């Protein structure tokens, strides 16, 4: 191997170099099948902490941000994908 050949770390996407999101994305892609469950538990914990801190407003903002996601999922189900 010469010094000019790129290693696996150099071939990775630049998205993986973002401190928090890159590690989560890399674990989801390269990790075990149970990694998604750890991510869901962490997101649910953040939601609970936000509701404890800011009350119903945090729950309302979370529901408001999920509206486009649910609409896209409904369209994909209707199309048959």
Judged by helices, strands and strand pairing, the structural class is mainly alpha
Question: Helix segment count?
Answer: 4
Report the major sheet: none
Order of helices and strands: HHHH
* Strand segment count: 0
Q: Would you give an account of this structure?
A:
The structure is a single chain. This protein has about 80 residues and is an all-alpha fold. Helix content is about 75%, strand content about 0%. Helix 3 runs antiparallel to helix 4 (about 55-80). The longest helix has 24 residues, at about 55-80. The protein is extended and about 60 Å long.
Layout: helices, strands, pairs:
Elements: H1 8-11, H2 19-30, H3 35-54, H4 56-79
Brief characterization of the structure:
The protein is mainly α.
List keywords for this structure.
single chain; 81 residues; mainly alpha
């Amino acid at each position: 191997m010469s010094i000019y050949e790129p290693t696996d770390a150099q071939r990775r996407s630049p998205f993986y170099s973002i401190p928090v999101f890159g590690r989560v994305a890399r674990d989801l892609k390269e990790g075990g099948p149970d990694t998604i469950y750890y991510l869901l538990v962490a997101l649910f914990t953040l939601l609970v902490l936000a509701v404890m801190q800011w009350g119903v407003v945090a729950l309302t903002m979370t529901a408001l941000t999920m509206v486009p996601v649910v609409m896209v999922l409904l369209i994909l189900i209707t199309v048959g994908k």
